Structures
1.
Amino acid sequence: MHNQTTIAQKISYTGIGLHSGQNVTMTLNPATAETGIVFVRTDLPDRPGVKASASYVTNAQRATTLEGGAARVFTVEHLLAAFSALEVDNCLVELDAAEPPVGDGSSLTFVNLLQQAGRLELAAPRRVIAVDREYSIRVEDKFIALLPYDGLRISFTSVNPHPELGVQFGDYEINPDTFIREIAPARTIGFMHEIKSLQEQGLALGGSMDNALVYENGKPLNPLRFSDELVRHKILDVIGDLSLAGIVRGHVIAVKSGHALNTALAKKILEASRPSTLKL
């Protein structure tokens, strides 16, 4: 698809926020070219909005937070991954709370919504960032880099102290079919020993085995969808976070990266690159 897209019709979904534990209704609305993905807080006076851009990232602890003026939204990465991988460029996302619904903890809920809504091509070219040099972020033993590449490829190494998880490696060429089949079903991961601490910090208040893959003593308490579901979800997060730079083409190589490094890389690319209009 050479031109920008939006969804063909409005569609809504109601669920619970992963970290807030609040019920929320999300409505996806068609938008005009050059709008981008914009989150609109319908529960606040004057319905303030914030664009899905690395420029507006204010927190990346356990989830990605965007904030612009009175508009603040968090845990946006699973939804953004679906928009990015399914090549939906423009959408107004109305929320009546600060956090989108978590669905089942993966991107499947959002994939299904976008497929039901359909996709509409707009009369404006897509603007693609095709990198021509290396971009990288390193913090201690964690790093993420983006190298020139014809397409979008993600190679991720996850290292976890639990012996049942250990080292997991995933390497995927990202396109709509691969994303839907191999990445979108991978759920967010939780550990029983962390739950009390997270909830004391106001996190994971809506988490359950219905919307997360939960481990205890290194063993999954609910059935795995993939033997390497952890690293696949890490790749899902990269897709969502990296989309905050725009439509990026390159080879991502990451080791133990999380939202903080992912969004720092997106910001670095956004600040240094000038998008060019390319055919896809």
Note: The radius of gyration is 18 Å.
2.
Amino acid sequence: MTQRRRSEEVRLAVMLLTRLPAGRLANPAPSLAQARWAFPLIGLPVGALTWAAQAGGLAIGLDPLVAALAALAAAALVTGALHLDGLADFADGIGGGRDRGHCLEIMRDSRIGSYGVLALIFAVALAAGALASFGHAAPLPVFLFTATASRLAMLVLLDRLPPARSDGLGRRAAGAAPGGWVPGAAVTLGLAIWAGPGTGAALLAVAAVAILVARLALRRIGGQTGDVLGAAQVLTETAAILTLSACLPA
């Protein structure tokens, strides 16, 4: 695999998971399945921009909670709220579906229901409260670590769960390849070491939440979809932030 091909795969991952400018793909363009190894790496620019938003807000005198909400708003803006949309659809489908077919039908509906609204409210509120509890800008390594670890969890679910649909992102990006987790795992481990105390507990929290999402998705819809992956990213990142806020000194 040439370096040029790898860079094209990273570019495709940026295009899929963010709204950041990434130029144009060279022909022949890589497939989503080929580019999925780079999903955890997308946490680096997203985490850096989220940290900058919180640090900048505090620097101009915003209240810690307001600055935390500004950071989460920046994350939603840079990702196009892609994963938050997945969480809302997943919550609506799992919460309101009678059976597998009904769950998938609800998850495909663009309208948001009460389960989706509540899931978004609680996820954003918990993350914002945890970030505000630092009383200052959470360290840059914390943002980078939580953003990459949660996207690594998303990649693991993508590879370990069968697609629940015959179409969609979850189907197009599926197809495990040997060593596909290695780059993301290596970056996440390095960031965990950099971030310091509490990251071991945060990784356990990420793993626990990812397993819960996976078991729920398998039981209710028989596998993963793009919405399942988005929900896993948001929920594992929120769990990591909550754990670190409890472990790191304010």
Note: The mean pLDDT is 91.
3.
Amino acid sequence: MTGPAEGDDVRRQPEAQLATMTMAVPGGEPEKPARAKMTKRTKLLILNAISVVGGIGIWWTLALTGFQFPTPPEVIETGVKLWKSGLLQEDLAASLTRVLIGFLAGSALAIPVGFVMGWYTVARGLFEPWIQFFRTIPPLALLPLVLVLLGIGEVPKVFVIFLAAFLVCVISTYQGVVSVDRTLINAARVLGAKDGTIFVRVVVPASTPFILVGMRTGLGSSWATLVAAELLAAQAGLGYRMQQAQLYYDLATIFVGIVCIGILGLVMDRLLLLAESKLTGWQERI
């Protein structure tokens, strides 16, 4: 009598395991993970708000206790004046256009080059020494040479931004390709997948997080390069406006430029984070 009963228990074990797994997939109990995720997101938003308010409070306190800082109301008043005069819109449009063109062009070229370097040994051997060579040279160090060769128009400023974004993103993409788990590639080959299919279905998705991290880092480098480029050769832009304000010791205008760059950079970074969450939803996050 014991044997059949034990056999029935053994046969029922897969059913019990299946029932347990069912509880973990949609249709089981999805409310708890969703609620936990929402709670974590709400907590982060609250902490972000506290951080912003605290930072402004520290800034205001320093301005009132002897530091040569303009107060937040003074910066807002100066920003409103620049906006009404049309200078702020002109500077925002000029700087944002340069960053977008240089950053998007640099990232668009860096991604295929990084894929080729990571996938083909010949390409890696040919390209990597030059990329590593130029990566150690700050793009701004090349600005005097670029100005001599390309003049003082928009091309040299966009080029150094392009270079800054490209060098960061290409290394990140390359690292993403070479970091793909070889077990996944070998498993795909065992299942009969060709190299093209493996590249599209395995390598590209696995490299996407690295690419987006490289793009976020390249975005910061693009803004840093832009401001320095506008300090040297520009007739409009946030960096140019800050340089002009420095000559007249106009700290409020300098702060307006800093705040605008920070806000624009933050918004663009959040857009990349949103794209990352959509493209890498399969990735586990803390």
Note: The two ends are 50 Å apart (CA to CA).
4.
Amino acid sequence: MKALLQRTVFPENHHYVPEGAWTRSAFTVLRAGKAITAPDHCIRRDSYPGQDILFCAAGRGFVSSEGRTLSVKPKQLAWLANETTHAHWPDADDPWTVFFVRIDGPDCPVMRRKVFNGRATVATISTPAVLEAWFGRLFEVLRARDDGVDLTLNRLVAELMHLIAASLVNPAESRLPVQLRAVVSQMRQAPEQPWHARQLASVAGLSAAQTRRLFQKHLHISPRRWLIRERIMMAQKLLLESDAAVSAIAERCGFCDVYHLSREFKRSTGTSPRVWRKGEGR
């Protein structure tokens, strides 16, 4: 009886094998479940496909990843770097109950670094009930295996990334400085304008270098790339809402010519303005 009580119980445990080429182009889920762990339940690996993400619902546990050993408490999530040596195990005195999911897709480590922005890969989830509900929906999808399961799993992974990222945002840091708000507001009202560095600095009341540093610190992008992104969104709106020629839209949005628009549009969306207009219009 004592040995039975020490066994890890898996109330949910699902595996999925997508088509071979799928993970080169989109994210998916390889495994997911829920475990009520025994004190001696320890997993250690040199490396493993995909990325394991664990959410502690009760108890406590530990993860070792990227040379760090981190404690994980209830309402906390840990993301393991499976491409390196990693491990996870429960607290011997208070073994955790853990939800787990293994994702895979194009360059998972880049996604992990983007979400955590260089910080330790443990996050306190601000909406744990929402995350548990997300796992519930994931289990239903994996049980049903309906047509379109790959697209559904891809969407669920995207939702998970947003849930994690939202929990990492510091409200004090998320408010932009007043100088940057002024610049962004004016650029957004007229993205077709050239917005040279001197003009941006004048709006911000700072030097050009200080304005550029504000963009990098708070928006993680240069003023030029931010402006191009706004122009692309403006072009998308015009492509759908008007019959104007692409060359006219390029000029209206501040691009040098139609070739400049096409190059930046394809870089952002993966397709040309004409193809995008046809597909989105339909």
Note: The two ends are 64 Å apart (CA to CA).
